[in-house]
Design goal:
- This protein is of the alpha/beta class.
- Among the domains are: about 80 residues, Gyrase A, domain 2 (2-Layer Sandwich), CATH 3.30.1360; about 100 residues, no CATH class; about 180 residues, Isoleucyl-tRNA Synthetase, Domain 1 (Orthogonal Bundle).
- Helix content is about 50%, strand content about 10%.
- A 4-stranded antiparallel sheet has the order 1-2-4-3. A 4-stranded parallel sheet has the order 6-5-10-11, with helices on both faces.
- Helix 12 links the parallel strand 10 and strand 11.
- Helix 13 packs across helix 14 and helix 19 runs antiparallel to helix 20.
- The longest helix has 25 residues.
Length: about 600
């Protein structure tokens, strides 16, 4: 569906052409002086030199051509050569009708859908999720939803850290604590127990205890290294324990991600790509890309255009052990083989940028991917406390993600109960819905690459640029629509009429920006653009609400028009927050 701005630009282009000028000069933009006009065109200024004519003369001629345009209700040539524009209320209403009937709400879906894999999880099994995992999950989930709305096939992969020394540490510590378990008996030939020998709470205590001890006790660390090696060679008892660890840990991870309304299509991890590594390394060596340096196996990835030093990509350490680079390269190899994606996007901490520069270049140079596969890195900034430092608990430790969410929900519950707009039995569920909006909107409203301050008081406020404010606006709209239906009205009646006042027209002008906003958010991988958009829509609606009689409107046709405008506003806002990964309650 053609965008409103495109319609206006097309109209200006025809006018420039009719006046004898290049139609490309007719580009329309939102006015930077909203007190003077709604839109503007600076083409006369740009064309003055080429046509050796004063800008205001060109602007005067174009404005004269547009005098009877059905698209604009005001066209004004202003010295030194600006063209000030107000869109016609009739044309705007007709555009709104088309948008209302479009199932995509004016968003142009991809003509040639692509397959995109988004890597946006990255937790280690046997460890609780902490606040450091928040941004990857929230940003990745939103980008996945936006890409799907645009019509692309998207696979979200959690990419678990489920292999390596951490597993050896857990097995070693478990052996110290429960040496009689059958997993440690080399002569045991029966079936291992189906129930794990630990709970998730015990597992989450075992790993840090083992990690701490390994740093203080060299013999203990060597035992863990041996256990890791035996696991990776397929030792039967250790593989059974590994399966228990995975089952318990993944079940807990799914529960916690579900609380964030985050889901993954693929629950793969580093263990899945281990079979690919030997052949991958062998091919790199045979093709002359990988060579030994001080015992390690490396691939040069430096390019002539580099302005700073890019170290070689290490494939194997001197002891033959693989690294994150190894498993990341093998993961790209597996993804190409199984899914043949057009793009692989990594949503990770921006401090890992150098690592991914090395991995991407190595993958490209060694032929793991060809030039048609896009490898993208979206690095996000740090979530900080009010002191400007990485977010911590009051005791100074890393806060568990479930505790952070619980704190937010508790704060929202207090505010909702104080407001007394929701029955006590519903307040807790409503608090969870609104609390999630506070967390997600608080994060996504910031440009991903930037650090930001996680301020619980500000994020849970019902005023200002916050998730609860957006939800409060949606709930207000739903309340009006419900009352209209209770009074016997039907939402599908009538049609959207030209705006009756300035605030109604301003709301319409905001609504038609949905399509361009979503498309830009996808192209730029920028959910914050949707946040900025819906904040403007919410403000425009609330101004309209305070200045317009809606249910009290006496003209039946006008009343039906207002209701249809509200319903479209609701659809746009609810679709937008779904793209951000949260929803609105019925009451607040």
């Amino acid at each position: 569906m053609k965008k409103l701005m495109e319609c206006m630009t097309e109209e200006l282009g025809k006018a420039f052409e009719k006046a004898g000028y290049d139609p490309a000069l007719g580009r329309v933009s939102v006015s930077n002086r909203p007190d003077l006009c709604e839109y503007q065109c600076n083409g006369a200024m740009a064309g003055a030199k080429a046509y050796k004519k004063a800008p205001f003369m060109i602007a005067d001629e174009v404005a004269a051509v547009l005098a009877d345009s059905p698209v604009f209700e005001k066209v004004e040539s202003v010295r030194p050569g600006f063209i000030n524009l107000d869109v016609s209320a009739e044309f705007l209403a007709s555009y709104m009708k088309k948008m209302e009937s479009d199932e995509n709400l004016s968003v142009d879906r991809a003509a040639s859908p692509r397959t995109i894999i988004i890597d946006y999880g990255g937790p280690n099994v046997a460890k609780p999720l902490h606040v450091g995992h928040l941004r990857s999950a929230i940003i990745g989930e939103s980008i996945k939803r936006i890409a799907r709305f645009m019509g692309h096939k998207v696979l979200g992969d959690i990419h678990l850290g489920d292999w390596g020394l951490q597993m050896g540490l857990i097995i070693t510590e478990l052996r110290k604590r429960q040496p009689d378990l059958p997993y440690f008996d080399d002569n045991f030939e029966g079936e291992y127990p189906s129930d794990p020998p630990f709970t998730i709470s015990e597992l989450e205590e075992i790993y840090p205890a083992a990690s701490k001890r390994s740093k203080e006790d060299e013999d203990y660390r060597n035992e863990a290294l041996l256990a890791t090696s035996l696991l990776q060679k397929g030792k039967r008892g250790y593989m059974a324990l590994w399966n228990h660890i995975m089952k318990v840990s993944v079940a807990d991870l799914k529960k916690n991600y579900e609380n964030l309304n985050v889901s993954f299509d693929l629950w793969k991890g580093e263990s899945d790509v281990q079979p690919y590594i030997p052949d991958m390394v062998k091919k790199m060596q045979e093709d002359g890309f990988a060579y030994e340096d001080q015992g390690a196996l490396i691939v040069d990835v430096k390019e002539d255009t580099d302005t700073k030093e890019i170290p070689p990509c290490m494939i194997l350490k001197s002891d033959g052990a693989s690294l994150y680079t190894t498993t990341d390269l093998a993961t790209i190899l597996e993804r190409k083989k199984l899914y043949d994606p057009d793009e692989i996007l990594y949503v990770v901490d921006k401090r890992q940028e150098l690592h991914f520069v090395q991995v991407f270049r190595c993958a490209r140079r060694t032929g793991i991917v060809d030039e048609h596969t896009v490898l993208s890195f979206l690095g996000f900034g740090t979530m900080n406390g009010k002191d400007g430092k990485p977010f911590k608990t009051r005791e100074g430790g890393v806060m568990r993600l479930e505790n952070l969410i619980a704190d937010i929900n508790e704060e929202m519950y207090k505010k909702i109960v104080e407001n007394r707009s929701v029955r006590d039995m519903d307040a807790e569920d409503t608090a969870k819905v609104v609390g999630l909006s506070a967390v997600k909107y608080g994060d996504l409203s910031n440009q991903a690459v930037k650090d930001y301050v996680f301020d619980v008081d500000r994020f849970t406020s019902f005023e200002g640029n916050t998730g609860p404010y957006i939800l409060y606006t949606i709930v207000r709209i739903k309340s009006i629509l419900n009352r209209y239906q209770e009074e016997g009205g039907h939402l599908g009646e009538g049609e959207i009429l030209p705006a009756g006042n300035k605030s109604e027209k301003d709301l319409m002008r905001q609504i038609v920006g949905f399509g361009p906003t979503v498309e830009d958010a996808f192209e730029e991988k920028a959910p914050h653009r949707i946040c900025a958009y819906i904040y403007d829509v919410a403000n425009a609606f609330n101004s309209f609400y305070h200045e317009t009689r809606i249910l009290g409107e006496e003209d039946p046709g006008r009343k039906k028009s207002l209701i249809r405008l509200l319903d479209l506003t609701r659809k746009v806002l609810e679709t937008s927050i779904d793209l951000l990964g949260f929803s609105a309650p019925e009451r607040m």
